[in-house]
Amino acid sequence: MRTPLTEPFRKQLLTFLEREQSRLTHLLAAVRTASFPIAALSKQQMLPNLYRSHLAERRSEIQKEDLATWKALIRHLIVLGVAITMLLATSVVVRRLANRHVHEGHRRQMWLLGSRVLL
Q: CB within 8 A of 14, min separation 6: which ones?
């Protein structure tokens, strides 16, 4: 309803609304220009966190592999030690048997030399 009393307020309201609309348009343009760099920065912030999580998973896998490798190495060293011990024990037994049961010196020397070569 138009009355002479409301007309000046109406013009003021219209100018105020036009200014606000202009301000909102400028703000929207600023947001649009800033949104691409902000999106790029957020991606750059997200990627290191993602890489850190993958690295943590990989680190735990590597630690498990290292533990398994160490266990396998220790197992192999134990088997090698047992094999060397058995060979040395066999050599000692052959030497004792040759010294006790082979009375001929030449033959005993051949047995001992053969056991050294084989063991």
A: none
